[in-house]
Specification:
Elements lengths: L1 H25 L17 H12 L14 H14 L1 H6 L1 E5 L3 E6 L9 E4 L24 E2 L2 E3 L7 H16 L8 E5 L11 H10 L4 E12 L10 E8 L1 E10 L3 E2 L10 H14 L8 H10 L5 H8 L1 H12 L3 H7 L2 E9 L5 E2 L2 E10 L5 H12 L3 E5 L15 H13 L4 E7 L12 E12 L13 E3 H19 L4
Parallel strand pairs: 3-6, 3-7, 7-16, 8-15
Antiparallel strand pairs: 1-2, 2-6, 4-5, 5-17, 7-8, 9-13, 9-14, 10-12, 11-13
Helix pairs in contact: 1-9, 2-5, 2-14, 5-14, 13-14
Length: 491
């Protein structure tokens, strides 16, 4: 009897191994096979000088003050006019709310849906006290050791200069696009885009514009960041998380600290207990949607046990969820995240305050919603704790389809300009101006072809922001080739 059971178990094990092997082997590469893009001669020194000059203009935006650093923005506009004369002589240029820019390059085919390329002019400020930690002055725009240094080099003046350079070169070659091209350069993306992207989207809406796709900043060309992936990987943001800021408030009778009430009854205790539950009982991780498609796309490019596991998510999915939830960046792809950010209570050490409040930042996964977040918070805080949204929330965006012709063109361009690079869909966990165009576009892609290694991640909004001069040239080649590919779509 025991022998028979062992034989059955062995047979089942062999069957499982066979199923895993077949599933693994039948998952072929999803990467397009395209020839390298033709060479494109670039004056990289002159290109780096253009970006450096743009970085030297301190275009820091402000949510409260629409006129903050307006003179710097106007200097940037003058610089763009000077350095890109063909663009400004040929394209229609609209100044929106004084500081944001909309360029229109009319296409030859009125029936072809237009496309929009987005890059913003504004930058975040330098964190006080960190100036001395920069290898070069943060607004110097210095070219050193093969890099252009300074705030905005990566986010997002590099894309702005590269897009304009690509169009300038195409105009010089007599190129005319088949579909109308919009170049959008907001002046307040870093504070949510209320006067820039929002107003430009409204303008396009009033003009009855329907876009085939939008491409904006977002994910990047990673090198050595994804475990098990040796080749560079271009991760294309197919959706953007929503967000909501939630405040919880508790009230209780105030009193003297020498005569405290029973444990757990003060305002601080109530808020503290609520925060503990919210921190420990978060939304569950879900390996689904864009995250699942990311790993399914990369699985055939991996080796060993990683390829087996990712090719058989029906079996290894729960284990993989647990593992990915341990890392900050991968965890953010799998769940609606909870971040405890502000706590306020009391103003004197010997007085028990009558009120305490705390603020939480939620980044919402596609499939969840602001209402679902509020319901979750209310279910965890306990009796006597008020819950409210602080406003300015957004819902997660729709997920763009990898079956769309525009995604094919994007893959085709990336594989041609960056031979050997893997292209995969992913979820963008931050925010961009593109979410203001959701109702105007069939597809939205959040991607910058900026090469990023593990040591570069902290440079975004951080210290020593920079972009390689050679990579800046690649940005131009990418936009140049994408526009050419759109003009002559492959069958």
């Amino acid at each position: 009897m025991v022998k028979r059971i062992l034989l059955v178990l062995a047979a089942l094990l062999l069957l499982l191994v066979a199923v895993l092997a077949v599933n693994t082997l039948r998952q072929g590469s999803r990467q397009l096979d395209v020839p390298p893009a033709p060479p494109l001669a670039l004056d990289e020194k002159a290109l780096a000088d253009k970006l450096g000059a743009a970085i030297r203009l301190q275009t820091v935006s402000s949510l409260e003050d629409p006129t903050a650093n307006a003179a710097e923005f106007r200097k940037l506009h003058a610089l763009l006019q000077e350095r890109f004369p063909r663009v400004h002589a040929t394209l229609q240029r609209d100044l929106v709310n004084d500081l944001s820019l909309l360029y229109t390059w009319k296409g030859t085919d009125p029936n072809a849906k237009p496309v929009a390329f987005i890059a913003h002019q504004d930058v975040v400020p330098i964190a006080p006290g960190t100036e001395s930690k920069w290898q070069v002055a943060p607004f110097s725009g210095e070219v050193k050791d093969g890099y252009v240094w300074g705030r905005g080099a990566w986010d997002d003046k590099g894309n702005l200069i590269a897009q304009l350079e690509a169009v300038e070169m195409l105009l010089a070659a007599g190129f005319q696009p088949r579909q109308t091209i919009y170049l959008i350069a907001g002046a307040d993306e870093e504070v949510g885009g209320p006067r820039g992207a929002v107003a430009i989207a409204k303008m396009l809406r009033e003009r009855k514009v329907r876009l085939d796709f939008v491409i904006d900043e977002g994910l990047v060309l990673t090198e050595g960041i994804l475990p098990g992936v040796k080749a560079p990987a271009a991760l294309v943001g197919m959706a953007e998380k929503g967000y909501i800021t939630v405040q919880i408030t508790a009230n209780a009778p105030p009193g003297h600290a020498s005569m405290p009430p029973p444990p757990g009854t003060t305002a601080i205790a109530k808020v503290g207990d609520a925060l503990k539950r919210l921190d420990e009982e978060q939304f569950p991780p879900k390996l689904q949607g864009v995250a699942r498609e990311l790993f399914q796309t990369l699985a055939p490019e991996m080796g060993g046990i990683q390829r087996v596991a990712l090719s058989n998510l029906w079996l290894f999915g729960p284990l993989l969820e647990k593992q990915l939830a341990k890392g900050a960046s991968t965890n953010a792809m799998l769940r609606t995240t909870t971040a405890l950010t502000i706590v306020n209570a009391g103003n004197k050490s010997n007085v028990i305050p009558g009120q305490a409040d705390a603020t939480l930042d939620y980044r919402i996964l596609p499939g969840d919603s602001t209402e679902k977040v509020l319901a979750h918070v209310r279910s965890k805080v306990g009796e006597g704790v008020e819950v409210k949204s602080l406003g300015g929330s957004t819902e997660p965006t729709p997920v763009s389809s990898t079956a769309a012709p525009s995604y094919y063109q994007l893959q085709r361009t990336l594989r041609a300009v960056f031979p050997g690079t893997l292209v995969a869909p992913a979820l963008y966990v931050a925010g961009s101006d593109s979410h203001h165009f959701v109702d105007l576009a069939d597809s939205i892609y959040r991607f910058s072809p900026v090469r990023v290694k593990p040591e570069d991640v902290a440079r975004l909004h951080g210290t020593n922001e920079r972009i390689a001069v050679a990579n800046l040239g690649e940005l131009v080649r990418f936009y140049h080739q994408l526009l050419r590919n759109l003009n002559a779509p492959a069958p």
